[in-house]
Specification:
By secondary structure, the chain is an all-alpha fold. It has one domain. The chain has 3 helices and no strands. The longest helix is centred in the middle third of the chain and has 27 residues. The protein is elongated, with a radius of gyration of 20 Å.
Length: 79
């Protein structure tokens, strides 16, 4: 997988003002070598994080939590 390439195909040329020290730290932490790669990684991880939160919210709203033990389910039924 090449992190520097957009996962969604194509791309949009965009100008962003990122503080030099933040970009340098992101490059150092990830081991990536290009601004494009580190920005694509950051955007992908942001989207993934929000999708995970949305999925957890949907799970919490379910009547039956698939992650509950049988004992926990029995306790819920008594309520």
């Amino acid at each position: 997988m090449n992190i520097g390439d957009a996962k969604y195909g194509g791309g949009m040329a965009t100008t962003v003002d990122i503080p030099d020290e933040v970009l340098a730290e992101a490059l150092r932490l990830t081991g990536l070598t290009t601004k494009k790669a580190v920005i694509n990684l950051a955007m992908s991880e942001l989207v993934q994080g929000y999708r995970q939160r949305e999925a957890l919210t949907r799970l919490k709203r379910m009547d039956h939590n698939p992650f509950m033990t049988d004992e926990e389910l029995a306790g819920e039924e008594r309520k």
